[in-house]
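hey can u run this one w/ guanosine-5'-monophosphate bound, need the structure tokens asap thx
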Amino acid sequence: MSNDLTARRKGVGRGLAFVVTGPSGAGKNSVINRTMAGLPSLEYSISYTTRPPREREVDGVDYHFISREEFAERIERGDFAEHATYLGDSYGTSRSQIDGMVARGVDVILNIEVEGAKLIRRDGLGGHTVVFVFLVPSSLARLEERLRARGSESSEQIAARLDVAKREMDALGIFDYLVINDDLETAVAELRAIVTAERLRLS
Ligand code: 5GP
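ok here u go:
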């Protein structure tokens, strides 16, 4: 083995996209944040949304918070690689942000709901190889517990999110991996393992 075989693998930062989807309250944000810490060349796709910021959310970090008018203009201009409506608000993935990441040769993590994941499954994502990960607690009862513990939504909003979650579970078939988040450490270890394994694939 005289030649270095490292280049035969997909490798770190070769334009892999990890689409992480799962019902609201599944813990996607915590699992993604913890997974990214310590993994090199992995960047977060900061979505655009018309939803108002929650306490502690920072514009340009958690989301780009924009008006409905601006969202509509961005759709018109073709700015979004995918976009979807979730409980009355719009959410979209910036095409130029993703293209920039491909150009710089970094991998990207997207935190999106199921309809957006289906669109990316259908249309692809600007040259990234896409890996689809579904993240859920082991039961709807646990999901409800998590939503109540988070305390950021009213009882009505929680009921609406649980309704959507029941429908979202039906889409499991389009995903490549299932991560169960009953325990944060375990879920983080699993998502890291997925990122690492995909980087070790022969290209
Ligand atoms: P939340 O309001 O709880 O932050 O997000 C609601 C849902 O929208 C979550 O499931 C989240 O993953 C999803 N979401 C966030 N950004 C995007 C996006 O750019 N596109 C799509 N399709 N869904 C998104």
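DSSP finds seven helices and nine strands in the chain. anyway lmk if its weird
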